[in-house]
């Protein structure tokens, strides 16, 4: 059987953020009302030491598509809104989601505040779309920054014929190309692309080739060969979730 996985080679990653920008472009993820963003592809940034002897490390993070996924167990809906596919992807169905956020609470990686010395910020894994607010609030705002001079978000969306104006259109039986308020959302390994034989867009867009995606149960695949050659690491191994996002090598300082 297929088990899709992603390897992130930290020897090649330079923390440029191309993967995050590609993810936002492909999946039309929105700004939150507080100005933060839904980043399905996010980062942990860490600094060590004292100037001038300092070190810096960036670790890309995303949904780990765990084989033992607490988010799936926690979902109270039947049939489940958060579930595992036959090819190992942790999938989410928009229509069945009731916005209870039980999956988000159960996930040991979701919105996890990094507490290690030198690290900062929070990283997204499962995001919640605030209920009652437009999903693409920026492009639902008719106010002009300078009345009679600048345009508004609604005018841009109307002129482009899409919300957001840069909308990437795709069809998938479980999730929409733009979600709605009151539900959760997350990375799906770009299943709408994978089903057509394409790579997840973050993989395709990485200029250093630091992301490798494929079937780890296929001994001839690149991911399987890399796992055989290198000893991989995962985030929070103590959680026992068996992540299918794995890391090899060390990030250069």
Characterise the protein shown here:
The protein is an alpha+beta fold. It has a single domain (4-248), classed as Alpha-Beta Plaits. 18% of the residues lie in helices and 20% in strands. The chain has 7 helices and 12 strands. The protein has helices at residues 18-27, 70-74, 102-106, 153-160, 191-194, 201-205, 222-229; strands at 4-9, 42-50, 53-61, 82-84, 90-92, 112-113, 119-120, 122-123, 126-128, 184-186, 211-215, 245-248. The strands form 5 sheets. The chain has a 3-stranded mixed beta sheet with strand order 11-1-12. A 3-stranded antiparallel beta sheet has the order 3-2-7, with no helix packed on it. A hairpin with a 2-residue loop joins β2 (42-50) and β3 (53-61). The radius of gyration is 19 Å and the shape is globular. It starts with a strand and ends in a 5-residue tail after the last strand.
């Amino acid at each position: 059987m297929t088990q899709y996985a992603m390897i992130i080679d930290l020897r090649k990653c330079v923390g440029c953020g191309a993967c995050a920008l590609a993810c936002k472009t492909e999946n039309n993820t929105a700004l939150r009302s507080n100005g933060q963003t839904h980043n399905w592809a996010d980062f942990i940034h860490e600094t060590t030491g004292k100037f001038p002897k300092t070190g810096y490390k960036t670790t890309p993070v995303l949904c780990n598509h765990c084989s033992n996924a607490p988010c799936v167990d926690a979902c109270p809906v039947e049939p489940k809104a958060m579930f595992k596919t036959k090819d190992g992807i942790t999938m989410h169905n928009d229509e069945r989601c009731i916005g209870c956020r039980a999956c988000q609470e159960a996930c040991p990686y979701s919105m996890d505040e990094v507490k290690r010395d030198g690290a900062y910020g929070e990283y997204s894994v499962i995001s919640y779309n605030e209920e009652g607010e437009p999903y693409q609030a920026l492009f639902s705002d008719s106010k002009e920054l300078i009345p009679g001079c600048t345009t508004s978000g609604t005018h841009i969306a109307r002129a482009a014929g899409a919300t957001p104006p840069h909308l990437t259109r795709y069809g998938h039986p479980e999730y929409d190309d733009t979600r709605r308020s009151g539900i959760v959302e997350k990375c799906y390994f770009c299943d709408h692309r994978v089903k057509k034989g394409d790579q997840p867009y973050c993989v395709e867009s990485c200029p250093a080739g630091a992301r490798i995606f494929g079937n780890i149960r296929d001994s001839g695949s690149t991911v399987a060969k890399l796992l055989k050659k290198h000893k991989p690491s995962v985030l929070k191994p103590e959680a026992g979730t068996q992540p299918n996002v794995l890391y090899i090598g060390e990030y250069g300082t």
